[in-house]
Amino acid sequence: MLKIFKITAILEGISFLVLMINMLVIKTNNPELYHTIVRPFGIGHGVLFIGYVLLAIFLKNAQNWNFKVFGIILGASLVPFGTFYIEKKYLKEAV
Q1: Which UniProt keywords apply (predicted)?
Q2: For 31-84, what is each residue's pLDDT tens digit?
């Protein structure tokens, strides 16, 4: 399950960055592209975010994460590039 969490963390980070680029660059230049580009990425990112949080909750006891580490892992999903940091620091052993 740790490998699935690692993949989800990477995909969630990528979807977050793609969503931000779409919102900041494409939407400001072409507001009519909202339904064709921003909305599908938003839905995908939402699904990945929920999966990331649920997998973190399931893995908390299995990986013996204390409350501080668990808080860092959950908080990283709210920051750009945060899930990439978690993947490098806490998920090294997942192959």
Answers
A1: Cell membrane, Membrane, Transmembrane, Transmembrane helix
A2: 677 667 777 888 899 999 999 999 999 999 888 889 999 999 999 999 989 989
- What is the residue range of 27's domain? 2-90
Asked whether residue 95 is assigned to any structural domain, the reply reads no
Q: What count of residues does the chain have?
A: 95
The pTM score is 0.84
| Spatial separation of the C-alpha atoms in residues 70 and 20, rounded to whole Å | 25
Q: Is residue 74 in some structural domain?
A: yes
* Domain total of the chain: 1
Distance (Å, rounded) from C-alpha 23 to C-alpha 36?
12
Per-residue tokens: 89: 């620091």
Let me know if residue 32 belongs to a domain.
yes
